[in-house]
Amino acid sequence: MAEDYHKMWADLGLDLKKHDQLLGVLNEFYPPLFMQQPNRPAGMGYFDFVISEVHGLRVKELLDHKAKGGKVFGTFCLYVPDEIITALGGIPVGLCAGTDFSIPDAEATLPRNLCPLIKSFYGFKVGKVCPYIEATDLVIGETTCDGKKKSYEVLSEIHPTYVMEIPQKKNDESFKLWKAEIAQFVKKAEGLTGKKLTAQNLKSAIQAHNGKRKALQKLNALRWAKPAPISGKDALLISQIAFYDDLARFTESVNKLVVELEARVKAGKGVFPKEATSLMISGTPFALPNWKLHHVIESSGYPVIAEESCVGSRYFTELVDESAGTLEGLLDAIAKRYFNIHCACFTPNDERMDDIVSLFQKSGSKGVINYTLSFCTPYLVESHAVKKRLDKEKIPMLNLESDYGMGDMEQLKTRVQAFVESLKSKGRRGGDPLPSSNPD
């Protein structure tokens, strides 16, 4: 880090000894995982800098914003409409939930057989090791699973928390409920910020967030080139940073990287051999700093070129319609955009199956790894529907379940390697061709 932030962390009430241990682990593992990748794009330097200041500069920017009267909203889920927060002068920040470092503190209160993402975020708060949650004026939760819903009740005992109710079905009645829920959130956000939502400030915020999504769309489409111009691990890192970095600065940095990647594609320059077997991942979110599965796959020699996940295509594929001229029309557009995110909390969830098949075909992947965090009941159960649909489409799939621990990495690598060998073997035997819109 460029400067010593210990006073800032102390003022936020962090456990400095434990927090230094957390940063020590990150500083030990990040350089070999990311910065030593061969043929890495130069534009990744910005994102390396962001990680080097992960609990420093950005946290200081949030505190400076608060000192000027601004508000900071912490989020854990895609269903929180960032545009409304931005329009009211607030800053939305995705909170830490991707490491087992904080889980022991959480298990003093929460059950052990609970999703590691939930235990991770609660442990960061109760263990006093995350400056982001301490900088927030309000945490916005959501009812995407029972574990989160009940854990937000526990979190509300020690931190200001507001929970948005997410409908569970895709029908007209549910959409009406969702619009009403967004209207209630507008009132809550207006009350906290002391500002009024208008068509003008909301449209400006929509355009800014759409700009970020468009930049991520371009970047992720370039990953489908052969050879891949950027690793899946780096693309994942960029999407994770998107949740908390400065909106304009992040968008500008991604667009600069896109220009570099376009030149790489034109020159045929990549980070893996052209003939490498490319894979996509579907399933649960990859909260920062969960890079485990991508590292397992890519260190085995297989590029990850797409993710159907909350830190992948679900995050940036859909834009908000900017055409409405009234506040009511813009809020309706926001409701439609967020209602079209296909989380496993919905039943039935045929739209998500369509998304997986479509992304597989567009990306030119050779197989799908369906990844689920342990004890993530919605995605674990929905794996049955995913397999059924992919079997129907003759798309090869490997089911993997894991947590944030490192103890199963060799087992995961063995299973991934065996899966890829089965794809190659099928090709050598002249079996049914693998569906792809971008064949070798």
Assembly level: single chain
- The run of helices and strands is HHHHEHEHHHEHEHHHHEHEHHHEHEH
Shape, please?
globular
Biggest sheet strand line-up = 2-1-3-4
How many H/I helical runs?
A: 19
Largest sheet report: 4 strands, parallel
Question: Distance between the terminal alpha carbons, to the nearest Å?
Answer: 44 Å
How much of the sequence is in beta strands?
5-15%
- Count of individual domains: 2
CATH architecture tag of the largest domain: 3-Layer(aba) Sandwich
**CATH-derived topology of the largest domain:** Rossmann fold
The residue ranges in which pLDDT falls below 50 over 5 or more consecutive positions are 429-440
Mean pLDDT equals 96
Using the CA coordinates, give the radius of gyration: 21 Å
SS-derived structural category: alpha/beta
Number of strands: 8
Task: List its traits.
four-stranded parallel beta sheet; 19 helices; 2 domains; Rossmann fold; globular; alpha/beta; 440 residues
Can you walk through the features of this model?
With 440 residues, the chain is of the alpha/beta class. It folds into two domains: 205 residues, 3-Layer(aba) Sandwich (Rossmann fold), CATH 3.40.50.11890; 209 residues, Rossmann fold. The chain contains 19 helices and eight strands. The strands form two sheets. It has a four-stranded parallel sheet, with helices on both faces. Helix 10 packs across helix 16 and helix 11 packs parallel to helix 13. The longest helix has 24 residues. It is globular and about 60 Å long. The termini are far apart. The C terminus is likely disordered.
